[in-house]
Amino acid sequence: MAIGDAGLAARIEKEASTANQLQTFLSRYFYLVMSLVLAAIVILGFSRTVNIFLIHANPPRPLLLWIHGAAFSTWIVFFIAQSALVRTRKVSVHRALGWFGATLAALMVVLGIAVAVVMTRFDTVVLHQKGVEAFLSIPFLDMLLFGSCIALAIYWRTKPEYHRRLVFIASCLLMDAAIGRFEFMFNHSLFYVALDCLILLGVVRDWAVDKRVHKVYLYALPSLIVVQSLAIYAWRINPKWWQAITQAIVG
Questions:
Q1: How many domains does the chain have?
Q2: Which of 79, 193, 194, 202 is least crowded, fewest Cβ atoms below 10 Å from its Cβ?
Q3: What is the DSSP string of 64-110?
Q4: Per-residue model confidence as pLDDT tens digits over 109-152
């Protein structure tokens, strides 16, 4: 073999080895790493507003908002713990904690909807803000999608390939609340784009590891984009049919 051929072969072998290492890392650690990424997004996002809008808010915010925040934070910790338990092969503990997660998720859906209505009334009556009712389309959709993904994850709890992706998508869907704390993302209605990019990382992981994209993403992402677009339309355009709905809800 010529020296040039030997060098080319060595370079190809090195690239193949690097690719294999990346595949192994993504296969083993993707969900754990992403759980930490989501936690970092929550910390960065809410650190921008939690002091003036919750801790030292004037006037004080309703107690229900504190409870909602506690439940939300607990879910992030839960997602990290569950990802770590799978990585360390403590599957029995993971499954036992799963029912706690199911209960927490159900509580979060109820709290999310209730807080959205309570805070809309607070903003209207106490802070005298105008037109805030239209924004209800965002938290309502968030809770509908989050609850649906978790319900499907529970249904397919014996199918890990479905279950883990649905829980991952559900957790990503909660990120618009944190991402929306960045004024540019909120003012330009880009928080859904950002969280969909987080979900797309799951697609990249599948392609890198399995050389195909799992059907959960193939069905979920197009559906998410459609309903997210409708929610943004209802919020920003606030058509009369949506005004009628929000007025009936808020009173």
A1: 1
A2: 193
A3: HHHHHHHHHHHHHHHHHHHHHHHHTT-HHHHHHHHHHHHHHHHHHHH
A4: 999 999 999 999 999 999 999 999 999 999 999 999 999 999 99
